[in-house]
Amino acid sequence: MKETSLSLELFVRLARVNAIMTRRFDGRLGHGLGFNDFVILLALNRSATGKLRRIDLAESLGITASGITRMLAPMEKIGLIKREANEHDARVSYVALAPGGKRLLAESLERAQMLSEEVIAPAKAQKLNELLAGSLNGFPAFGALP
Q: What pLDDT is stored for residue 56 in this prediction?
């Protein structure tokens, strides 16, 4: 069998890390909140206006427009997010945190931070900071990280 390139090996390992991390977070954030739901709530909370266009939300999370639509439907149904119309353009709608989503995010944020520290020990924080600050920013596919 032919050996894989270093870049492919990196992507395979990143996929594995993502799967492990998601599995650890799912069900442990409380109230049945999954990791992907948490990430969506966090992205909306971090936006300057408290709302985002669906396409912008999808792009910020690295998923497709149809993927974000499928993820948002159950979240809207249980009152975590809400749709808001654009008063200037009826073709544009926004996704915003609903009061239930704000409450659930606030309740799960501390637990999420504790879970992340279980995976990445605080002693390794400097290495992680270096990785986030420099390494991935050099790869055009990742874009500039916040």
A: 94
For the chain, residues with pLDDT lower than 50 are: 140-141, 143-146
Amino acid (1-letter code) at residue 144: A
By the 10 Å C-beta count (0-12 exposed, 13-18 middle, 19+ buried), 59 is classed as middle
For residue 90, the model assigns a pLDDT of 78
